[in-house]
Amino acid sequence: MHILDRFRDPELGRALLEKVIALADRARDKLGRPPVFMEVCGTHTVAISKAGLRSLLEEKLKLRSGPGCPVCVTDYGDIDAMVAFGRLPGVTVGTFGDMVRVPGSRTSLEREKARGADVRVFYSPADAVKWAKENPERQMVFLGVGFETTAPAVALSVAQAKALGLKNYSVFTVHKVVPPALAALGSDPEMKLDGLILPGHVSAIIGRRAYDFIAEEYGLPSVITGFETLDIVDALYNLLQQLISDDPPRVVNGYTRVVREEGNVRAQETLDRFFQIADVSWRGFGTIPGSGMELKPEYREFDARARFAPEVAAPRIPQGCRCGDLLKGKLTPRDCRLFATACTPSHPVGPCMVSSEGACAAFYQYERRT
Ligand code: SF4
């Protein structure tokens, strides 16, 4: 039996779901309304939609998607800056696949590519370094998008470029760290959340204890969990248990097969070596203090901002897209009047419809009602 098979056992799943439904009734009686939980991570959003859990449980509890899709939270101004790099003569922009189609204020990298910009998709930053080495006549600007999970690979690409003595490799980092965004959610008086499902991958890097403040300062029960359906149902069961209990809320590690108390110390050391914490803007949130990672001054020669400083016009926010509110858990994709009408995967208006981890794309694929 494969280790994951027991997380996919339908009998176990049904039994646990019945327990969740029973506990959700008790939680609703206690709160006077159905409990509202947020899955912070985009991969969880997709897993929940794919398993049909949101629709299945919607009479009993509400599941809201959060700010854990890195492409989705990249703000308009940052996408406009990526476009500006692509318009510079002699510059090739390298990025992960999803970023290419994300609309900025006026255009996207995909449209810029159609107009002649050199935009290339790489599976890893190391491939972008290799490309830079093989094409010394071009400047490679790699777009560093993502959370604590992808930033170490970008940091190592800088180390690799330095070791190779490359003068034509730099990174435009819009990397973000997750805990400050959770603090922003927890301190928002408009938020009516009763618990959080915390990301599995990010937690593998930063560790369980990095989240203790969520329970201590904001009183939110929280569970780190994996991506199998039973992982998620088990997390819901744990959140509901915490909600109906009179004990203080806790941050529970339900993903012990991957996540440690202290996280991945080597990855954390890599991040500390290359990055310093910065105040950065998140779509829907605005600037969140201490929520970004920028290259340390000693790596300035690899910082695309410092090397090129392209001119970027003030962002223009497209009308109608509700991605910002969606990323704060205030609504679901179905509450956006553009969903599945003006905004579809083939004609996305916002990043939440573009990204493979975006809530709108997940709803469109798995939860669309015709
Ligand atoms: Fe934005 Fe489209 Fe989602 Fe509406 S459906 S919030 S326009 S991405």
From TrEMBL:
GO terms assigned for molecular function: 4 iron, 4 sulfur cluster binding; carbon monoxide binding; iron ion binding
Keyword Lipid biosynthesis applies: no
Record-level GO BP terms: protein maturation
Signal sequence annotation: none
PANTHER family from the UniProt entry: HYDROGENASE MATURATION FACTOR HYPD, HYDROGENASE PROTEIN ASSEMBLY PROTEIN HYPD
Entry protein name: Hydrogenase expression/formation protein HypD
Keyword list, A-Z: Iron, Metal-binding
Upper taxonomic lineage: Bacteria, Bacillati, Bacillota, Clostridia, Thermoanaerobacterales
Species: Desulforudis audaxviator (strain MP104C)
Endoplasmic reticulum listed as a keyword: no
Family designation: Belongs to the HypD family.
Matches recorded under InterPro entries: Hyd_form_HypD (IPR002780), HypD_1 (IPR042243), HypD_2_sf (IPR042244)
